[in-house]
Structures are given as C-alpha cells and as structure tokens.
Amino acid sequence: MTPNPIFPSDFSSSTDANRSRPEAKIPSAIEAIVVSSQKHFSGRLEIAAPNSKSWDLYYRLGRIVWAGGGTHPHRRWQRSLSKIYPQLDLSRANVRKTDKQTAWEYLVLSILLKRQQIDRESVQAIVTECVVEVLFDILQASQSQSLTGIGYGEEALSESLALLKVADVLTDARLQWEAWCEEGLSDYLPNTAPVVRHREQLRSSVSDKAYRKLIVLANSRSTLRDLAVSLKQDLARLTKSLLPYVRRGAIELVEIPDLPDGRSERGDRLEDADFENDSSSEAPLIACIDDSLQNCKILEVIVRGAGYRFIYVTDPLEALPTLIKRQPNLVFLDLMMPVINGYEVCAQIRRVSTLQDVPVVILTSQDGLIDRVRAKMVKASGFLSKPVDPSKMLATMDKLLPIES
Question: CA-CA distance, 196 to 312, in Å (whole number)?
C-alpha cells in the first residue's frame, strides 16, 4: 500500500486536500524536522536526498520517538546497544521474522523492555543515541546535497518508548557537527571504515607499536564510529589522529556494508550468531570464557569493534566442547569461575592437540606472583587485569595474532 503524503508545511490539511495540491512546497530537511514538532505531528517524517538513502524520523504529537534509515541502521542500533547496555544478551530475545513492523529494531527494544530484560532509562538512552546520530548525518549530508522532508501521518509507531524534544536532540547533533568541523573533518564521513592501503609506507612513518595498533584498527570492517565506541574514545579526536595517514594515502576511508538486521533465518529465535559483526569469515575468531555475561559483553564490544569475530561461553563446563568445535584463534579466560577455575580450563585446552598452540590469556583481578607461576605451569600466554582496559586488550590481540601480509 502506497502511503499518502502529508506535507509538514500544512499538517492541518486532510489527506484528500493534499492530493489536490501537487504544487505544495516540500520543506527542506531541517525545516521539516522543526515544523513537524511545531505542528504536533504524529507519523513518519522521511528525509531524502537525490539518488541516496533516506532517513526516517518517527513522531508522536511533535516529539521524536525513534529514528532509522541512513547508511547503517542496524550497525547504528547494535553499536548503541553495546555502548549503553553491554550486559544485554540478545540471544534471549524471541522475535519472529514475519512480524510486521516498520522499525524492527524499535520493536525489539519494546519487547525487551516488556520482558524486563532492559530498563526504561537505558532504552531512552539508546533511542536518544540513535536519533542524535541520524540528525548528525542529516546535518552533514545537507552541506552538499539538497535534502527534502515529507511526512506520512498514517505511519505512526504503535507505542512510545521515549518522547524526545526536537530542540534538545537537534542541539546535541549540531554541537557534535560543530566539533567535527572544528577538527577539520567536515569532508570525512564517520560511517566510513579505515583500511591500510600501503603497509610499508605506514610502517616507515610510525613506531612498531603504533604500526601494529593501526593494522588492528584499520581493518575495513569497523567504521570510525564503531572504533570510537569500542575504544571509548571521542569520535572527532580519534578520526583526527588518523588524518595524517589518510592524507598520505597509507590509510583510506572506505564505505562498508551494514550489519545483518538480526532476524533469524533459522526460526523465531534471535541467536547470538545473528548479531555477529559483518566480518569476513577469514577474520580471526576470539573466544571469551567467563561466567559473567556482562564481562563477556564488554569484551565483545572491544573485539567486534576491532573487526574480529567473537564468541563467548558463560558455563566453564561447556568451554572445551565449544572451543573444539569453533577452533578460535585466541582465548580470553576468566580465572575465578564456579565448579572449575581458569587454570583447570587452560590445562584442559592444552591437552587437546588442535588447541595446543592457541594463545590463552588469563583475565584476573588477582595478578600476583603465585598466579603468574600457576599460569606458566598450565602454559597460559599472558595476563590481563580486570576490569579490562580496551587499549591493553587490543595490544594483547595484536601481539598474539599474526599480522596479515
């Protein structure tokens, strides 16, 4: 069914009246966003550019309740989830692929909230994060393209998880855009991913430590926004730090595809594998064994943000069968777990011929001499203190995983 457009410049008009007024002027993007609020609009506001993807802003009585569309709608949603509520276990959400819902990610948030698998404050923060990011992208696109806005009143969402004031989120987006421009980044897109194009040129211009870190980060699988979240760094500052290498041609910023939307092809359950980073099947697989789901999710943000594949096991008794089946390239192993501790798991790993050479890094808050001696006895590859520092974790992965040629 084709929706009947309702132009934001005249929300009081009926749909039939608008049909007879094809000359009605479609307002510019920012004007449409503001006017939609002033007119207490309820429905979907589509912001479109010629020959480009569009963005969708959903309103209820002039307040924004959700934003979607753009270059990476699913990547944006999953990144916001990981940033704001890393302890969330998406594998516990059962949502049928056949469910009819315009904003599918919004539906998932609603279901998780009803099941008390996420709190309302976190939902509001996730919605705000996504809305501000969409507005930032609209502001950036409007600098070089003619954007238009058109409203569809019959496409309102069935419920409101958040009611955001347009003035507030638009101000946040403008401040972020101004900060981006102040760093000289107006011509660069935060949804692009860095990739190393000339390794020897890069190697000769930086230290060995910096080179290894850049090789890990600039992998063409994580966008600048992904990296900023996984490394807990300011987006503009992180991007500016890469500019010298981009300008020399050693690193290039490239467009990458969106992540899968998470709807399972195998049935009605959202499996954790459906939310894996859209990395190449050849990307190293990192495993985490920790009885704390929250700790696993924190590591997941860092690992996937660096472009690697990731699996986790929260039951230490299931660790060995999982590792044998999946054959990871590196294992992060918690020391203190019920029933069987990290040393015992590590010893079991070393007794399996196909896992003998896999690096195993012990995660512990008790990094003492005795612990290091015991770790050496079971042939652990290293230690990381908890809570894990993202930069140290990346350095550890970089050290223990081979550099791609």
Answer: 29
Say how many C-beta atoms besides its own lie within 10 A of residue 268's C-beta: 12
**Residue 251: CB partners within 8 Å, gap ≥ 6?**
194, 195, 196, 197, 202, 214, 218, 242, 245
Nearest-angstrom CA–CA distance, 405 and 403: 6
Q: Distance between CA atoms of 75 and 278, rounded to whole angstroms? A: 9
Q: Which residues in 322-402 belong to E strands, given as ranges?
A: 330-334, 360-364, 382-385
DSSP letter for 104, please: H
159 and 241 belong to one structural domain? no
Amino acid at 195: V
Beta bridge partners of 195: 219, 252
- Which secondary structure element, helix H or strand E, spans residue 66, and what is its range? strand 63-69
Q: Which residues contact 89 (CB under 8 A, 6 or more apart)?
A: 117, 272, 293, 297
CATH for 339: 3.40.50.2300
Domain enclosing residue 161, as ranges: 8-13+20-182
Q: For residues 248-262, give the mean pLDDT.
A: 85
Please give the Cα distance from 15 to 290 (Å, whole number). 57
**Helix (H) or strand (E) segment spanning residue 391:** helix 390-400
CA–CA distances in Å: residue 72 to residues 148, 165, 236, 341, 396: 20, 24, 19, 40, 29
Q: Which residue has the tokens 């350095």?
A: 395
C-alpha–C-alpha distance, residues 93 and 74, integer Å:
16
Asked if residue 345 and residue 292 are part of one domain, the reply reads yes
Q: How much is the pTM?
A: 0.69
Instruction: Tell me if residue 85 falls in helix, strand or coil.
Output: coil
Residue showing tokens 């003035």: 167
User: Which pLDDT does position 23 carry in this prediction?
Assistant: 37
Decide if 277 is inside a domain: no
* Domain-embedded: residue 146: yes
Label residue 375 by pLDDT band (50, 70, 90).
low
Q: In whole angstroms, how large is the CA radius of gyration of the chain?
A: 24
Question: Residue holding tokens 């003619």?
Answer: 146
Clarify whether residues 222 and 316 are in a common domain: no
| pLDDT one-digit tens code per residue, 29-44 | 889 999 999 999 999 9
Same domain, 132 and 230: no
**Are 54 and 160 within 8 A, CB to CB?**
no
Q: With respect to residue 286, please indicate whether it lies within any of the assigned structural domains.
A: yes
The H-or-E segment that residue 393 falls in is: helix 390-400
Q: Are residues 235 and 172 in the same domain?
A: no
